[in-house]
Structures are given as C-alpha cells and as structure tokens.
Amino acid sequence: MTSLARLVTTPRSHLPLVVVERFTEMANNIPFQQMGNTVRMIANGAANTQSNVFTIQSNSPCQQYYLANADTNSAVYVQINATSNFNIALPDAGPCPVIALPPYSYKVFTNIQVGPGANVYAKIIGDAANATCYITPGEGF
Fold first, then answer.
1. Hey, what domains does the chain have and what are their CATH numbers?
2. Across 46-140, where does the E strand assignment appear?
3. What is the pLDDT of residue 66?
4. Cβ proximity of 54 and 137 under 8 Å
C-alpha cells in the first residue's frame, strides 16, 4: 500500500488545508497465476479426521493460494502453517485457524509466504469421509 500526503492551500483562507489522499495499490491485482505445483490433499478415513501433513512448494516467492473443493456435498477446512508439526480441527467447538471451503467451490487467499527453500505445510479436515482439496501456490485473484 502506498500513501501520499499532499499539502493544499487555498487563496481564500489564511490557514492551510491539509488533504491526505491514500492510494492503494494491490500488488497482485491480476488473474491468478500458478507459481508452483498443485497438491491434492486427502483426509483418508471417517469424517472429522485430519489429513497427514502436505508440503507446499513454489518456484518463486508468493503468498497466495488457490484452494478448490471438488466435493459436491461436503465442506472442507484447510490450515496452512510454517511448521509441519500442528493439528487441525473443525471449528465446531470454537474458533480455529482454518479456511472453510463450501462444497464445490474455490477461493484464493493470502497466507504465509512460500518460496524456493521456504516450504509451508497444510492439512485438511472435512465434514465427510475422505475429504479432498486441491491447493496451488501463486499470485493474483
């Protein structure tokens, strides 16, 4: 985000009028572009069973992720973490740091930066057995 402050004076007033203008520039105001491999994440087993941890890698630094839930009946919940040792839970009992994906939907969101030599880790959990989600690192919306 870039901010620019400009001092404006008017001839009718002896006091300067300060006008602050804020110009917001989105760095990623472009269509989503893939910057790493897509990973298929599966939570094998019964509903409410967390998946194994999946490693997410990219070809260049980025911190946006395209998530797709291809299941037409069940929601999935995704958590991305900087370390591989974490647990994920459904947000039923209270707040959880997960992204909810309704059935048959996709989202692009910003999270921890991934890049060459700087992996991130993800897990999913679902409302139904064998929850599946696809994740792709990149930039854009």
1. 33-139 (2.60.120)
2. 54-56, 62-69, 76-81, 99-101, 105-114, 120-126, 131-139
3. 96
4. no
pLDDT in tens, 42-65: 998 899 999 999 999 999 999 999
Give the pLDDT score at 32: 93
Please tell me the distance from the alpha carbon of residue 9 to that of residue 116, in angstroms, as a whole number: 50
> Do the Cβ atoms of 19 and 29 come closer than 8 Å?
no
Length of the chain: 141
Which tokens in the block code for residue 121?
Answer: 């880790």
Q: Which residues of 93-130 are buried (b: 16+ CB within 10 A; e: fewer)?
A: eeeeebbebeeeeeebeebeebbeeebbbbbbbbbbee
Give the residues of the chain that fall short of pLDDT 70: 1-28
pLDDT for 94 equals 86
Under a CB-based contact definition with an 8 Å cutoff, are residues 80 and 56 in contact?
A: yes
- The whole-angstrom separation of Cα 141 and Cα 139 is 7
Residue 69's CB is within 10 A of a number of other CB atoms, namely 24
Tell me the whole-structure pTM to 2 decimals. Answer: 0.77
